[in-house]
Amino acid sequence: MAIAQSDTIPDRLWLCMADSNRTRVLSRALAKGLGMTVYMGPTMDDEGPVAIIVADDAHAARIAEARRNAAPKQRSLLVTANARRAGADIFLDHDADAGTVTNAIDGLRAYRAHEMTIPDDAEIGLGATQSLEVGEFSIQTREQARDVAIMLGRATPRPCATAVGLYVLLANAIEHGNLGFDATEKAKGLAEGNWQRKLAKRMTESLYEDRRVRLRFQRGGRILSFLIQDDGEGIDAETAEMADPSRAGYRGKGIKLAKSMGFGQINYLGIGNTVEASVLLPQPVDTASAQPAAVAR
After folding, report:
1. pLDDT at 182 over 50
2. Is the pLDDT confidence value at 145 over 60?
3. Does residue 109 surpass a pLDDT of 70?
4. Half-sphere exposure of residue 66, counting CA atoms within 13 Å on the CB side?
5. Backbone angles phi, psi at 255, to 5 degrees
6. What pTM value is reported for the model?
7. SS (H, E, C) the chain
8. Most exposed among 66, 101, 278, 291, judged by the fewest C-beta atoms under 10 Å?
9. How many Cβ atoms sit within 10 Å of the Cβ of residue 217?
10. What is the pLDDT of residues 199-216, one digit of tens each?
11. Angle CA(74)–CA(76)–CA(79) in degrees, nearest 5?
């Protein structure tokens, strides 16, 4: 991968997807909400290095092309209908809506920013994170969700994918569970460029200002489990999907996204405001049995 020097060049995101309403909503949301330089189209320009590339199946080859003009710690996201997935850091199902894709990009950008602060040869805080057996977190904002997701993601075999998946689940719990927005309202806010203001305003309203998302983390012998509960009213996913797909759809999409990012199992529990996700840990190596047998002399 060719790494371009970009000390004086803003982070650039290449949105390389077929033209659609989702793509147009994404371009507006990213330019306004993430503070990145966003450019669209199937051809990479020469204006500066690429920090993040988001592509679909029709443009999957552009991910490899972007590596030839990579900003430090470049990251990639592929929106795909294919069952076999390779060549990108993060994968989303092809029917992910603009709100889900935006949250995934937000999480991916935060993880890259975290990587940029840590030297390649340093593992700052990694030992403490990987030794954590039980933890509980009370989260109100998406900024807090990013920090917790990155910290816990580092304790897993696929830290980037898990951190982004956790962030999307936490962001869903905040936006749709605690604050009561549905998928249609979010898409409209993204398209109009006022989604951030809507979130900030609702967080100050008396009905919502004290709501939190609680995350419980537990490490077992082979399993890392995450239990996420919001203070929303909850929803029966199957019944609500039939009555109003825009109201329940974010939960199903969140599950599909999380599964695509390496969670072994994920389910909504109770009244639908609690989600349980797990990550399978690799089989520990038995160092004693791995040693060659001593030869008697």
Report:
1. yes
2. yes
3. yes
4. 29
5. -65, -45
6. 0.84
7. CCECCCCCCCCEEEEECCCCHHHHHHHHHHHHHCCCEEEECCCCCCCCCEEEEEEEHHHCHHHHHHHHHEEEEEEEEEEECCCCCCCCCEEEECCCCHHHHHHHHHHHHHHHHHHHCCCCCCCCCHHHHHCCCEEEEEECCHHHHHHHHHHHHCCCCCHHHHHHHHHHHHHHHHHHHHCCCCHHHHHHHHHHCCHHHHHHHHHCCCCCCCCCEEEEEEECCCEEEEEEECCCCCCCHHHHHHHCHHHHHHHHHHHHHHHHCCCCEEEEECCCCEEEEEEECCCCCCHHHHCCCCCCC
8. 291
9. 20
10. 999 999 999 999 999 999
11. 170
Q: Do domains 1-88 and 126-297 have the same CATH topology?
A: no
- Rounded Cα distance, 140 and 134, in Å: 20
Starting from the edge strand earliest in sequence, which strands make up the sheet with 90-93, in order?
37-40, 12-16, 50-56, 70-80, 90-93
- CATH number of the domain located at residue range(s) 1-88 in this protein: 3.40.50.2300
Q: Do residues 224 and 279 make contact, with C-beta atoms less than 8 angstroms apart?
A: yes
Nearest to 215, CA basis, from 172, 251, 250, 161: 172
Domain ranges of the chain: 1-88, 126-297
The residue type at 261: M
Q: Rounded to an integer, what distance in angstroms lies between the CA atom of residue 198 and that of residue 122?
A: 39
State the distance between the two ends of the chain, measured CA to CA, in whole angstroms. Answer: 52
Q: What is the pLDDT of residue 210?
A: 95
**Predicted confidence band of residue 261 (pLDDT cuts 50, 70, 90):** confident
77: left (phi over 0), alpha (psi -120 to 50) or beta: beta
Number of Cβ atoms within 10 Å of the Cβ of 238: 11
Q: Which residues neighbour 213 within 8 Å (Cβ) at sequence distance 6 or greater?
A: 138, 139, 140, 145, 170, 173, 174, 177, 178, 228, 229, 230, 231
**Is pLDDT above 80 for 59?**
yes
Q: Domain 126-297's class? A: alpha beta
